[in-house]
Amino acid sequence: MNSLTQAQLKDLDKIVEIDKSVIGHNGRKDMLKKSIESESCLISMQENEIAGFLTYNTNFFGYSFIELVIVSPQERRKGHATALLQHFVKIASTEKIFSSTNQSNTRMQEVFERNGFTRSGIIENLDEGDPELIYFKLK
Q: Do 51 and 44 contact (CB within 8 A), yes or no?
């Protein structure tokens, strides 16, 4: 079973490594560091190793917004994303929780829907030809 905890700066390199394995570069290192420093990064642990992480803020019209849910490719389909989402819903500081994913990311859409999130809108022109789908959940 996995455990969830707040990320610490000592976790940054592993978090960046997981992020890089998914997106192909480490361009979000500074953003991830800021999330950890502001205590807005959760990690899912499997056998004392970081398996995935979730970052969040409350900058989406004053509501909680899940920025990233990233799980290491070898740890996918083991419940890490679900555990991170469910934990965040419990600790979120606002009643309304939002997130988003690309239209092409059908796996994440399934994760959101299995966890009670509903589609709430669409944003065009962020990624060329791949609209961003907004998801919503009431706490």
A: yes
